[in-house]
Design goal:
Helix content is about 30%, strand content about 20%. It is α+β, with helices and mostly antiparallel strands and about 725 residues long. It folds into 3 domains: about 160 residues, Aldehyde oxidase/xanthine dehydrogenase, molybdopterin binding domain (Aldehyde Oxidoreductase, domain 4), CATH 3.30.365; about 150 residues, Aldehyde oxidase/xanthine dehydrogenase, molybdopterin binding domain (Aldehyde Oxidoreductase, domain 4), CATH 3.30.365.10; about 325 residues, Aldehyde Oxidoreductase, domain 4. α3 packs parallel to α4, α11 crosses α12 and α18 crosses α19. GO terms for molecular function: isoquinoline 1-oxidoreductase activity. Keywords: Membrane, Oxidoreductase, Transmembrane, Transmembrane helix. It holds the Pfam family MoCoBD_1.
Length: about 725
């Protein structure tokens, strides 16, 4: 555990920790359609509530922590810091049980050579919730190991050893954590000690500034794109600018003559220009004479039509009561609306890429990845090495939002480095970031409802059409065979959360000719937009107050119902919902439940020169125990701005077989000038933390749509929202 111990120990001398088992998804493929439907609905309901765990390779403290000579403690994070502030929260949890100051904790990314691995990676807003107990348990175990060894060396009872700021004392005896760790060769590992009660926390629940802020402000080389190795070359890969395009022929003569170009690689489907600098590599790429085989020149209308309710595989994911038969009884009394959301990309500032170095029997990649274990396995296979011969050095990532779960680019980077025999810096151009991405799927929604004579909702149905977000990335068709459709991610949030006796949700899955994948909040963005917009229309149709209607439909005695009520009550109070609005202002609201985190927003808008401007956002979030309230507020603000971008600006179009956008000038996003006043109010509805990063994004678009209707009388049902 001391800094001198550079080589990873495979086990402790006296006793090993029990390693927690991995989660295995599987089961018997059911023979009958009826049984499949029942199982799929059960799985869909569980997926909505799923606590995504961390699947950790070891709980042995020396893989997690390292004590340095200045008595600071390095915590090796299995999770990627990509701007969400997790390093700060994890440091707070570790400091609680290690009995050190927060300043004594330094957090770095674990590498795959001698650190802990997490098979599920970073995603689903699960970092803090999944590590809330494990980090504290391992930290507490390390503390007790150090105390036990100090007591042994001093010949005193362990109960007499006290700890403060990493310094242990007993009578006249005194030693730092480092003193004990560097002088100990064999360790006695105790049973996992009891953890501190919430009331005893020193850091959790207090506002703490981001510990990763100083190096970012100072511009230190901490991102993947910043990495530099001796004798490093630069490469840019040739990628098809056409949807489904394949390389027919290539003439690299002109590219090879560009000053600075070292080599043009043609290795099967892999074509790359390698140069002494990035500029030369890009100029060489532009000089390649490539002829493409284009299977179809897609246009926007036909591309959009692929995602339409009624087309593709139909999977019922929620079924309570008899909503369909009730709606069919009197079709002329049914209120029905349709909603659409567009194809979108992640548009993070740091392009996708890696720095790769491959030698005879080992490979090292510097990459900001959300799934280092997956990358390690995939890269080893791509360059014919054993898994243990590949080391992933995870770097900070300049944005991600799900895009950095895919290893294909890094596999090719490793292959390029293997061919040239030198370290290679391989990153996408900005055009490739738009035209060769993994996209948020477009969606189509049809909702229908019928009222009773007293104006309450008797029945409601929701049909969502979407491509998948995770099944297409799996190595076989097992996911489609078992699940039928991707209700885990793309269909996440499609079920009706309100207490309506007769309700159902159905997913229509159809593949697109581009790869679609995880995008921040997965299916919660489109599904919350459609369902909450529809609920706001139902409230208007029946003359009910939108917040009051939701409180009635979410009432009950269960803990989740009480949490809903508290969030809505807080929202109404803090937003001034019942107070008069200023002239020229429209006001709307929405609520969402994303894996136990409840987020609700009231948004005020105005119209200037026929353009929608968001003036104020009031967000209320119940994500359980608030580890770092300041960090939560920052996450809510970031999610709100991303939600405003999704609601008012972004969306990809297809023209002549290509994604039309090639850079940010063709993909508008919200800027600092578009930033409204944002107020965040935190409600702690549980004694453990839930997810924070994604839930606040969900209610933004429907709340804006409702505010526009409140101001103009126009129902806008397609993202991005436009008045004309």
């Amino acid at each position: 555990m001391a800094t001198e111990d550079k080589q990873p120990k495979k086990k402790f001398s006296r006793r090993k920790f029990l390693q927690r088992g991995a989660i295995i998804f599987g089961g018997t493929v059911v023979a009958t359609i009826a049984a499949k439907g029942h199982i799929r609905r059960f799985m869909a309901q569980k997926a909505e509530e799923l606590d995504i765990p961390s699947v950790l390779s070891t709980y042995e403290p020396h893989f997690w922590f390292e004590v340095l000579p200045d008595n600071t403690v390095v915590y090796k994070s299995t999770k990627l810091e990509m701007g969400q502030g997790i390093f700060t929260g994890l440091a707070m949890l570790a400091a609680e049980e290690l009995e050190v100051s927060l300043e004594q904790i330094k957090v770095v990314h674990a590498n795959t050579a001698n650190g802990v691995e997490d098979s599920l990676g970073t995603g689903g807003s699960n970092t803090t919730s999944s590590l809330f107990k494990p980090v504290r348990e391992v930290a507490a175990t390390l503390r007790e190991m150090l105390k036990t060894e100090a007591a042994r060396q001093w010949g005193v009872p362990i109960t007499s050893v006290k700890v403060a700021n990493g310094i242990m004392t007993s009578g006249t005896h005194k030693a730092t954590y480092y003193d004990i760790s560097v002088s100990t060769k064999e360790w006695e590992v105790p049973k996992t000690p009891a953890l501190k009660p919430t009331a005893a926390f020193r850091f959790v629940g207090k506002d703490v500034k981001r510990i990763d802020l100083p190096p970012k402000v100072m511009g230190n080389p901490i991102f993947g794109i910043d990495q530099h190795l001796p004798d490093m070359l630069y490469a840019v890969m040739l990628q098809s600018p056409y949807i489904g395009g394949t390389l027919k022929s290539i003439n690299a003569g002109a590219a090879a003559k560009i000053n600075g170009v070292v080599q043009v690689i043609e290795d099967g489907e892999l074509v790359a220009v390698v140069a002494k600098n990035r500029y030369a590599a890009e100029k060489g790429l532009q000089a390649l004479e490539a002829v493409w085989d284009i299977p179809k020149k897609w246009q926007q209308a036909e591309f959009e039509a692929l995602t339409t309710v009624g087309i593709g595989t139909e999977v019922r994911i929620q079924s309570e009561g008899s909503p369909e038969s009730i709606l069919e009884e009197t079709p002329n009394e049914v209120f029905r609306q349709e909603y659409r959301t567009p194809l979108a990309t992640h548009a993070h500032m740091e392009p996708h890429g890696a720095v790769a170095q491959v030698e005879k029997d080992k490979a090292t990649l510097f990459v900001g990845t959300q799934a280092s274990t997956v990358f390690r396995t995939a890269i080893a296979k791509a360059i014919d090495l054993k898994t243990e011969q590949v080391n992933i050095e995870t770097t900070f990532a300049g944005g991600s939002f799900g895009r950095r779960m895919d290893a294909k680019h890094s596999e090719k980077a490793a292959r390029i480095a293997q061919i040239v025999g030198k370290p290679v810096h391989v990153f996408n151009t900005r055009q490739q970031e738009f035209q060769n991405a993994i996209y948020r799927p477009q969606t189509h929604h049809v909702l229908a409802a019928k009222f009773t004579k007293n104006g309450s909702i008797e029945a409601i149905t929701h049909h969502q059409a979407t491509a998948d977000q995770i099944l297409g990335g799996l190595p076989s068709n097992l996911g489609y065979t078992l699940l039928g459709a991707d209700f885990v991610s793309a269909g996440h949030g499609a079920s009706i959360l309100y207490n309506i006796t007769h309700k159902s949700a159905t997913l229509w899955q159809n593949k697109l000719p581009v790869q679609t994948g995880i995008w921040r909040s997965v299916g919660m963005l489109p599904n919350t937009f459609a369902i909450e917009s529809f609920m706001n229309e139902l409230a208007h149709k029946t003359g009910k107050d939108p917040i009051r209607m939701r409180m009635e439909l979410l009432s009950g005695t269960e803990p989740i119902n009480r949490r809903y009520q508290k969030v809505l009550e807080t929202l109404a109070e803090k937003s001034g919902w019942n107070q008069p609005k200023a002239a020229g202002i429209g006001r709307g609201m929405a609520i969402g439940n994303d894996r136990k985190s409840i987020a609700a927003a009231v948004i005020e808008v105005m119209v200037v020169d026929n353009k929608i401007q968001v003036k104020k956002v009031t967000q209320v979030l119940d994500a359980g125990l608030a580890i770092n309230p300041e960090g939560i507020r920052q996450q809510v603000e970031g999610a709100t701005m991303m939600g405003i971008t999704a609601a008012l600006y972004e969306g990809l179009t297809v023209k002549d077989g290509q994604i039309a956008a090639t850079n940010f000038h063709e993909y508008p996003m919200a800027t600092l000038a578009d930033t409204p006043e944002i107020e965040t109010f935190i409600v702690e509805g549980h004694d453990e933390p839930y997810g924070v990063g994604e839930p606040p994004l969900a209610p933004v678009a429907p709340a804006i749509a409702a505010a526009i209707f409140d101001l103009t009388g126009k129902h806008l049902r397609t993202l991005p929202l436009k008045l004309s």
